[in-house]
Design a protein that fits this description.
Number of strands: 40
Strand order of the largest sheet: 14-13-10-11-12-15-23-21-20
Radius of gyration: 27 Å
Shape: globular
Number of helices: 17
Helix content: 25-40%
Strand content: 25-35%
CATH architecture of the largest domain: 2-Layer Sandwich
Mean pLDDT: 92
CATH topology of the largest domain: D-amino Acid Aminotransferase, Chain A, domain 1
Number of domains: 6
Length: about 675
């Protein structure tokens, strides 16, 4: 077994590999760029080597620097994680020449399966069912239009060396092909150093289901069940689960056996994933093979009890798998939510800045559920513009899917992130969405359910009652604390008023309290909005963010943040302002004028911190609805800003190559 390994990656996956290596008694070496000098993976590793500037192209993507770090520290092997150099056959070969072991498949398998175009050719030759498409060299946008017309719309334009949704566009028309082809090539070149793309038929309403395979160098290959990865945004997976709620045992077995056959055909050695798209009739088509560890591997680990990173290390060290196919049992259900530094209310645009507060829910078993959080950040860490915006992968396990989803909902409600925008509100809302809870999903789920983007939701009557109960407990506890500070003699605190009004957003909710004093833990009966009195209990203390308690017979986890007047409550995707008022205060508050937001309809504002790739119009130009105004790149993704109406460009305030802050003015309209 290896004594020391180097992790050629960063963030949560580097931390994940370090944890397993440490448990196995293996020393670890981290590498880091300028931006990651104070990163968590650097702190966790036994040693750390600086490998260059912040840009990945000058640090994490430079194979020679990784090899030099191995030589400097005496690392015997390299675990590549995912992304960066994980699927570069040339990197694997370079390591072999230096006598350094690559913890992953051999170059042959990487070359055969790592390139999406070549993998489809190989799969066709191996009689694996594939999606109809064109795998040859596409000369230009006009050639792409011809190919798309022959295949039939809609089509998918994909980067050959791509992954993570980058360099990928869906085209429903010739106009989409022209724009999508250029954008896909540009993103592919920027992210992977390879601008080749291919085109294939886009299966409408497909499910994205993948099979985890594991193989050693002694001819043993097996599959570890499937993962459902259909909840996607911009072709980037957001929520994954294992097993799939859609597959039956016969389809699972057929997909698994086909995956094993494909892995054996390329002499695959290590953990890998064979991805399929599955239609409504459970027909499945080979999509690609990822010759690396997947982001979503924790859900497989949770339902099988197998540490995939450990197995990769053991296989790379020449050991024989200690498992056979009959040993693989799928136990319970696991769900993974990807937490990203992005603003769900601004079409999920990236957010950068400092994590002023970062408090994940407690990991471990609690009754019938397990919470796991794979993360690479910490409170006080800086989220930069140079890398993927993932903060963490929050996972829950339970005996059933419903229990696992409920556990995820509760864990998300208790996940505290401040200082940047993040997608926890969206994930929380998703966990209670009827279609998701019923398992009626496809890769089009987000586009179908949120066609105009994710907007702040308004609570219904039942939700307002719960939010009012939370607000009342917080306000009364604060009131009690102030009273105790003024006079420590509890018997001198005046009795509570009976009638109150809680303002939730713009709604006024009457609350009647039972007689009594406030204590911690809080226990009191409340009659909310004219309903019968119900018990409300919690252990919340002033100054804490997470509120845990019972409202009636329902367990609730929420977050409370103080405002100048009142508080903000976040719960199950809802984010509302709340004020606790006396009836007279509520009467007067209703008479207050409403402050209107400033009019920005004549401005194009930069929606996120990023680099201006291009300005596509000129001053004085008349523009039609839908035409491209500018392209801004952030966190390796190009964002096309289009005209929302017919307009004329009055003045342009930014130029290509400029770095802009969020809400910086790019141009003005007449």
């Amino acid at each position: 077994m290896f004594k020391k390994i180097l992790i050629a990656n960063r963030g949560e996956i580097a931390c994940r590999v370090i944890k397993t290596a440490r448990r196995m008694g293996i020393q670890t070496v981290a590498v880091y760029s300028d931006a990651d000098r104070d990163a968590l993976h650097v702190e966790m590793a036994d040693e750390a080597v600086h490998i260059g500037p912040s840009a990945a192209s000058e640090s994490y993507l430079v194979a020679d620097k990784i090899i030099a770090a191995c030589k400097e520290t005496g690392a015997e092997a390299v675990h590549p994680g995912y992304g960066f150099l994980s699927e570069r056959a040339s990197f694997c070969e370079a390591l072999e020449k230096e006598g350094i072991v690559f913890i992953g498949p051999k170059p042959k398998a990487i070359m055969a399966m790592g390139d999406k175009i070549e993998s489809k050719k190989f799969a066709n030759a191996a009689n694996v069912s594939t999606v109809p498409g064109y795998l040859g060299v596409i000369e230009d946008a006009a050639h792409a239009e011809t190919i798309a017309g022959d295949i039939g719309y809609p089509v998918m334009i994909k980067a050959s060396a791509g992954g993570g949704g980058k360099g990928m566009r869906i085209a429903w028309s010739e106009d989409d092909v022209r724009d999508g082809f250029d954008r896909a090539k540009s993103e592919a070149k920027s992210s992977f150093g390879d601008d080749r793309v291919f085109i294939e038929k886009f299966i409408v309403d497909p499910r994205h289901i993948e099979i985890q395979v594991l193989a050693d160098s002694h001819g043993n290959t097996l599959y570890l069940g499937e993962r459902e990865c259909s909840i996607q945004r911009r072709n980037q997976k957001v929520v994954e689960e294992a097993p799939s709620p859609f597959l039956d045992e016969a389809t699972r077995k057929a997909m698994g056996e086909q995956s094993v056959s494909l892995a054996r055909a390329v002499d695959y050695q290590s953990a890998g994933t064979v991805e399929f798209i599955v239609d409504a009739n459970r027909n499945f088509y080979f999509l690609e093979m990822n010759t690396r560890l997947q982001v979503e591997h924790p859900v497989t680990e949770l339902i099988t009890g197998i540490d995939l990173v450990e197995q990769m290390i053991r296989v790379a060290a020449g050991e024989t798998l200690s498992l056979s196919q009959s040993d693989i049992k799928l136990n319970g259900w696991a769900v993974e939510s990807r937490l990203y530094a992005e603003d769900p209310y601004r079409n999920f645009l990236p957010s950068i800045g400092r994590l002023t507060r970062y408090r994940p829910p407690a990991e471990g078993r609690n009754g019938d559920t397990i919470v796991r959080n794979d993360t690479g950040v910490f409170e006080g860490a800086e989220i930069s513009m140079f890398y993927d915006p993932m903060l963490a992968k929050l996972c829950t396990w339970a005996p059933t899917r419903k229990q696992a989803v409920d556990a995820m909902s509760d864990a998300l409600d208790g996940f505290v992130v401040d200082g940047i925008e993040h997608n926890v509100p969206f994930l929380s809302a998703l966990m209670k969405h009827p279609r998701w809870r019923e398992g009626r999903i496809s890769t089009a789920f987000i586009a179908e359910e949120y066609p105009d983007g994710f907007a702040p939701m308004l609570p219904d009557e039942s939700e307002r009652a719960t939010l009012s109960a939370i607000a009342m407990t917080a306000a009364l506890t604060e009131l009690s604390r102030r009273g105790n500070q003024a006079d420590r003699l509890r018997q001198q605190i005046p009795p509570l008023k009976e009638h109150w009004v809680v303002k939730i957003g713009e709604a006024y909710v009457p609350v009647r309290l039972a007689e009594g004093f406030v204590s911690i833990p809080f226990e009191m009966d409340m009659a909310i909005d004219g309903a019968d009195a119900m018990p409300v209990t919690c252990n919340w203390r002033p100054g804490t963010t997470v509120w845990n308690g019972m409202v009636g017979e329902t367990t609730v986890t929420a977050q409370i943040r103080p405002l100048l007047s009142g508080m903000r409550i976040n719960w199950q995707g809802l984010s509302v302002t709340a004020q606790v008022l006396t009836p007279r205060q509520a009467e007067l508050d209703a008479l207050m004028p409403v402050k209107l937001p400033p009019d920005t309809s004549r401005l194009l504002l930069c929606p996120m911190p990023g680099l201006v790739v291009s300005i596509n119009v000129q001053e004085g130009q008349e523009v039609k609805t839908g035409e491209t105004l500018a392209v801004v790149e952030a966190m390796k993704m190009e964002n096309v800003l289009r005209a929302e109406r017919d307009l004329t460009i009055s003045s342009i305030k930014a130029a290509a190559g400029e770095s802009l802050a969020v809400d910086a003015v790019i141009m003005e309209f007449q």
